[in-house]
Amino acid sequence: MRVFYTASYLGKQKYQKYYDLVRQAIEKSGVELVSPEKGNYKDLLTAADVRRLRDERLIHYEAIRRGIAWSDAAIIEISNEDFQLGHEATLAMQSRKHVLCLSVYEDFSEKIRNRYFHGARYSEYDAEEIVEAFINKAKKEFLGERFNMFLSPSQLDYLGKIAEKEKIGKSEYLRRLIDEDREVRE
Question: Following DSSP, what letter does each residue of 112-149 receive, concatenated?
């Protein structure tokens, strides 16, 4: 499994020990990790990308965007809340990637409801457990299985209308129905 990990640059001075703690927990899980905290995230760019972008801020952002696209899941340390981290979490969720947002202060999953969003408040005592549980869940939920089915024209028409009304794709609507049913039955 491939994981992209990031944290707030503005919070480095205050939270670096926590950033390192999370990075080490991810590395212990045995996944393939790309991260600004590891220093390997720009490896996803070509020399032509760097020449084209020129500005270091644009290079940094493009490398993060590519890291999110490359990954199967993302982990974001958000103790120092910032707008860019929220944007990056949204990019990952829109790409149907599970995102774990970790904070030493608050569990944001109590506020944000999305099938791909996971949050946790953590400390040095439980960071490894939380990261491992998330990675196991993300592996289990990874959309790697394709399933074909036959529907009648009226079923397909209904599915299209309801998905359009919900402003999501037909496949996403079917996944939501299954997830909701599973929650009730488990």
Answer: ---TTEEEEE--TTTHHHHHHHHHHHHHHH--------
